[in-house]
Every structure is written in C-alpha cells, then in structure tokens.
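Researcher: Next entry in the queue.
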Amino acid sequence: MILLKLTLLSLWNRRASVLLTILAIAISIALLLGVEYIRKEAKASFLSTISGTDLVVGARSGSVQLLLYSVFRIGNATNNISWKSYQELTASPQIAWTIPLSLGDSHQGFRVLGTNQNYFRYYRFGDKRTLEFAQGQAFAGVFDAVLGAEVARKLGYQLSDKIVIAHGTSTVSTALHADKPFTVTGILKPTGTPLDRTVHISLEGLEAVH
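Model: Structure for this entry, 210 residues:
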C-alpha cells in the first residue's frame, strides 16, 4: 500500500513528463495504425484497378511514378520506351500478352490513353473482371474513341458524337487537335477505377494527331 502511494506521488510530481510520454506513445501508435491503413487501402485500390497482370514495364524511372502514371493516370512519364523495345518484349516467349499504354493528351480534363485491341481483350480489374461495353464496341478505325463511363456521363456523350483531344493534361488547353476529331464508337460500363475517367483511342490515332 505504501509502495503504491509512493508510486502515485512520484507520478504526480512528474506529471508533465508522464503526460508527454503518454502523448508520445499515443501519437506513435496512431501513426503506425495510419500507415498500416494507408498500405492496405493502397493495395486494395491497386488490386481493384488491375488484376491478372504480372509485370508493368516502363522507361527507367521510379517504380512508384510508373505505377501512378500507368495504372492510376496520375502524373506524367519522364520518358517512354521505344516501339522497338516494346516489340522485343512482345516477341519474348516468356510473355503471353502485352498491352501498350501511351498517355500525354487529354479531353476536357480527362486523360486520353493510346492503346490497341489487346486492352479490351486482356485487361482485368477487381476479381479478374473483363471490360464490358454499355454501348457500342471497341475502336476499329484510326479516329474512333471509346469512353469510360464517367467521361460519357459527365460530358453527356453518346455514340457517334465527335470529340477533340488536346495536347497535354491541363483542364484548359489551347493546343487542340481540332482538325482531327474522333468519333465515339463505344462506352464502357462503370468499373469504379480510373478507366471510368479515361478516353481510349488507338495508338495509330494518337500518332495521327501528332
């Protein structure tokens, strides 16, 4: 009993330092829990955005930057791999399939993605779910475009509408490719991923406007 009283008295006399210690421990625990939560959420977000993919390849840069750019459409690539390098990867017997991705243009604040038919054939998200069309079909011509669900909803686009893409990723751009409009041939079903906010065109179409 006397020992307990002495302990309590000692703590009271040093109450300021004790409170600071308790506060430091509480903050440390909160930070650890916060970091773990962010890690789990980031992993869940990645898995819901892309699945069934073993490797993401890009030009030499940071791995986080490559992931943000190619998967989440955040930021810009510092460099691009050459078409020759891509063809060499595609020809490798160890690789079953590839999907080329080329970003850099936009349409009214939405990212424009240049790719090919493999995108609609092999891309998986969530629990290996395939991309499905709400309307229309994948691009077939050079100036065809497939819209993500949110792009079509927010901008009110329908099949056969004409859209003009712009150079760069700014919401307001003066570098419009107005002489080469694209025709909406397909609108994807919602996926709950960055695909919903993406305008998809062919690599040939992307090259044609530059």
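Model: The longest strand covers residues 182-188.
Researcher: Noted, moving on.
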